[in-house]
Each structure stands twice: as structure tokens, then as C-alpha cells.
Design a protein that fits this description.
Oligomer: single chain
Distance between the termini: 35 Å
Number of strands: 21
CATH architecture of the largest domain: Alpha-Beta Barrel
CATH topology of the largest domain: TIM Barrel
Number of domains: 2
Radius of gyration: 22 Å
Shape: globular
Length: 474
């Protein structure tokens, strides 16, 4: 494991020339690969030049890139900065903390995360349930985020500093305080009582102002994490109509009144399976839709990639954001299974091709048990840390996500990338600096030769079995 980690870090350091904007010749192609059964982890696998060649042939598989056709603009790619991640982080030696920050957020020597999510008071990946107000305080006079000042806010600020100029953070609540709900518990679902709609709507604004006063800017917020799930952890049920009416009558007006009109409100924040009916219920009501920036979703029930496209087709002015996904349940013995990374590759290619503007993984860091988690709902993170020894474990998911976050930067525009073969899935982006990043995903057990075509020129390459490739054209 140690040798693999050293090799992986060396591979990332090898990428730094590209991030610093090295001048490359026109039509130059740099190739980076992560592949199963090899030591390649975001490794530089070669260089080539696009050149005029023979006419396109149906006998040779090809990928065709057309930068003249542009689509959505990327906000960022990243993960969640939770209590669990922060608590694990501060149990580690300083050199390991620095390595994690560099590995995730440094755009030169890491994978350059630029998007983050955090939670409004506790979630399952907290060591305990807690809120920011005293019971019965409908005026929110007791609102206090001092709990978060110990670990989570310093962790987020460290990530922001490591990321530099580009870092976007959105927030999500898992449950209102227990006294605001009909089941008198933050856990096991339940519903927000009507007499507390106004107080709960103002709670979001209180949180945003408190975090920003502490030096953590908030870009946007989701209305409710997983609003149709009654979980053993913090959860709260909203039907589609209830979410629509809460946004229309309470949350939207409260934020605007509180000087927070610029904050992006995101509805749904649950699985792709019901993405269209949940989105349409809100967006077909103009009085609610006026407050809504976009629709967020998770991956936990089926792929349902076509549902993302349905929303994009029906509501082209509405933004789409992947807000959470992770692999589970956690078993340390299976931490190196290759499927974990491939789950990310498949989801990211398809979500971006269907119109997503940002993609957010779940916890960026967890301990050797897949936590901490106050209801034992353990799962995987791209990096795990043994808090007893300080050892770090990089899952292959870290590298799969890195192929996107490293090479597809904020402000990039998706462009056409079309594959002749079902073996190769692909998406491509034109970055603000003019470089084109083409992602090529091979989920099969066989290598696949292909030609990459761009502006009438081509280059031959081969996608290894069970791999992801990034071809950077400049």
C-alpha cells in the first residue's frame, strides 16, 4: 500500500506542468491513464500529435470531438466537507493533514477540487445529533454555531485556502430541530410542523450569515437532503407539493428579505429515479420557480441517467447539480475493489453528457471504520485514514474523480464527444484556457484501440481494460 501511495503521488506531481500552463504545440495530445491491474493512477501514459490521416473508416473505432458545439458551463467538481471528515482530519499528524489538502484541493499537485457541500447542523456523518438553537426558540435568538468552530469550519477554511481562487460551497439540512417536527425527533423522518415553517425558513439565513461571518462564503443551498427518505439518522419528509409550497411561501421570501437573494436554491436533492416529477412539480409553478436556481440529485437507486436529460430537455434554463453519491457499505477488506472507481466514472460521464453543471461526491475523508457516524451508517470515501497509525488509503475512486476534477476546470464548456463503439464511453470539455479534455471510459475486460478525431485530424490510441483515460489537446 505504501509503495502504491508513493507511486500515485509521484504521478500527480508529474501533472503539475500542465496545471502551470506549460506551452505545448498546436494539436499536441497528452494522455493520462488510470487502469486496473497496473500501477497507472492518473499517470502520464504518453504524448502524441494530431495529424491529417486517412478518411474515417467504419472498420476502425473512433471518438469524434467537435468543439464548435458547446453546452453547459461547469461550476466545479468536488466533495462534502462533513463533521466526520473534519474530525478524522484533525486526528492525523500535521504532515498527513497537509498531504490530504494538497491531494484534494491543490490544482497543480493534486486533483484540484473546486466544489464543496456541507450540512446545516448534524447529519449521519456527525458524532452526535445537534442543532444551533435551544428548544422552543422560534425567534432563533439563541442561534449559535460554536459547535462547528472546533473542527468543521477550520477544515473548510483550510480547503478553501488550498483550492485558491476557485471554490464554491453549498449547504444542506438533514432535519429541522426535533421540537419543530411532528415526530419530536431529528431522526426517522417525520415532518416539519406548519407552525414552524417561518422559523425553519429563517434558520437557513441565520446559518448562512453565521458561516459567512466566520469566513466561509456560501454559494447556495438545497431545501432538504433526501426529502422522501425516512432514515435512522437525521431526516425529514417533504412531498413534492410541500417542498414547492415551502420554497414559494417561506424559504424564498425569507432569504430575499434577509438580503440573501443571490444564494442559489436547489430543490429535490434525492435520487435520479424521481428526478423529473419532483422537478416539474416545482418548476411548473412560476411563483415557486422564481426562487429556484436548479435541481439536485443523488445516485442511490438505479442509474436512471435519462431522467437527468428529461429535466434538461423540459426546463433548459434550469441548472442541474449532482449533490451526493458514495459507495457502501464499508468493508476495509474490499477497499481496493475496482468497481468503486468505475461507479464514479460511469456516473460522471453520463451525468455530464445529460447536462449536469457540477458534481459533488459525499465525504472527502473517513476513518478506518468508514466513519465516524452516530448511527453506524458507514461508507467509503476516496481517501480513508487510520487515525491510530496515520496511514492514508487512496481508493481508485480518488483517481477516477481526479480525471474529471483535474482536467475539467470551472468555466469549462461541454462539447461534443461521440463514440463509435459501446465499449468506450466519452465526454469532453473546452476549458477556459483553450485546452480540450476528452474523458474516455472503458468498463470492459478488453483493451480497445481507437482513433481520436478533432478538426479533421486524428491520433491513434488504445484504451486499456477497466480504465479511464484523459486526452488533453492543446
Amino acid at each position: 500500500m505504501k509503495q502504491t501511495l508513493i507511486a500515485s503521488i509521484s504521478s500527480l506531481l508529474f501533472l503539475s506542468d500542465l496545471s502551470r500552463g506549460a506551452v505545448l504545440s498546436p494539436g499536441h495530445v497528452d494522455i493520462y491513464v488510470t487502469a486496473r491491474d497496473t500501477g497507472q493512477r492518473l499517470a502520464k501514459a504518453g504524448e502524441a500529435e494530431l495529424a491529417a490521416g486517412l478518411p474515417v473508416s467504419e472498420k476502425e473505432d473512433s471518438i469524434f470531438v467537435d468543439p464548435a458545439k458547446t453546452f453547459q458551463t461547469v461550476i466545479g467538481i468536488g466533495g462534502a466537507l462533513t463533521d466526520a471528515s473534519a474530525e478524522t482530519f484533525y486526528k492525523l499528524p500535521l504532515d498527513k493533514q497537509q498531504e490530504i489538502m494538497r491531494a484534494y484541493f491543490d490544482p497543480q499537485n493534486g486533483i484540484g477540487y473546486t466544489l464543496g457541500r456541507t450540512h446545516i447542523h448534524s447529519c449521519d456523518f456527525s458524532s452526535e445529533s445537534y442543532t444551533y438553537v435551544k428548544d422552543g426558540d422560534t425567534n432563533l435568538d439563541s442561534f449559535d454555531i460554536s459547535h462547528d468552530l472546533k473542527y468543521r469550519i477550520p477544515f473548510i477554511k483550510a480547503a478553501m485556502a488550498a483550492a485558491g481562487d476557485h471554490f464554491t460551497l453549498f449547504v444542506s439540512p438533514w432535519s429541522p430541530p426535533a421540537w419543530m417536527k411532528d415526530n419530536h425527533s431529528m431522526l426517522h423522518g417525520g415532518k416539519l410542523l406548519p407552525e414552524y415553517f417561518e422559523s425553519w425558513a429563517r434558520y437557513y439565513g441565520k446559518f448562512i450569515h453565521a458561516y459567512e461571518k466566520a469566513g466561509v462564503p456560501i454559494w447556495g443551498l438545497t431545501v432538504q437532503n433526501e426529502p422522501l427518505a425516512s432514515q435512522t439518522w437525521e431526516s425529514c419528509i417533504f412531498t413534492a407539493g410541500e417542498e414547492r409550497d415551502f420554497v414559494k411561501n417561506y424559504l424564498g421570501p425569507a432569504l430575499w428579505k434577509d438580503g440573501l437573494k443571490s444564494k442559489k436554491i436547489i430543490v429535490w436533492d434525492h435520487n435520479r429515479a424521481l428526478l423529473y416529477p419532483r422537478a416539474s412539480t416545482v418548476l411548473d409553478d412560476p411563483a415557486a420557480a422564481r426562487y429556484v436556481w436548479g435541481v439536485g440529485f443523488h445516485w442511490y437507486v438505479g442509474d436512471n441517467f435519462e431522467n437527468v436529460k428529461r429535466v434538461q430537455e423540459a426546463y433548459p434554463k434550469t441548472h442541474l447539480l449532482f449533490t451526493e453519491g458514495c459507495n457502501y457499505p464499508f468493508e476495509m477488506s474490499k477497499i481496493n475493489d475496482w468497481q468503486w472507481g468505475e461507479n464514479y466514472g460511469r456516473a460522471m460521464v453520463n451525468d455530464f453528457n445529460n447536462g449536469v453543471e457540477g458534481w459533488t461526491d459525499w465525504n472527502v475523508l473517513l476513518d478506518q471504520h468508514g466513519g465516524p457516524n452516530h448511527v453506524q451508517n458507514y461508507c467509503y470515501a476516496p481517501i480513508h485514514a487510520d487515525t491510530a497509525t496515520g496511514q492514508l488509503y487512496y481508493q481508485n475512486s480518488y483517481y477516477y474523480i481526479g480525471h474529471f476534477s483535474k482536467f475539467i476546470r470551472p468555466g469549462a464548456r461541454r462539447i461534443i464527444s461521440s463514440s463509435m463503439t459501446d465499449t468506450l464511453q466519452t465526454t469532453a470539455f473546452l476549458n477556459p484556457d483553450g485546452r480540450i479534455a476528452v474523458e474516455i471510459l472503458n468498463l470492459s475486460g478488453q483493451s480497445q484501440p481507437f482513433n481520436l478525431w478533432l478538426d479533421g485530424k486524428s491520433v491513434k490510441s488504445t484504451s486499456p481494460a477497466h480504465s479511464i483515460m484523459t486526452m488533453v489537446v492543446s
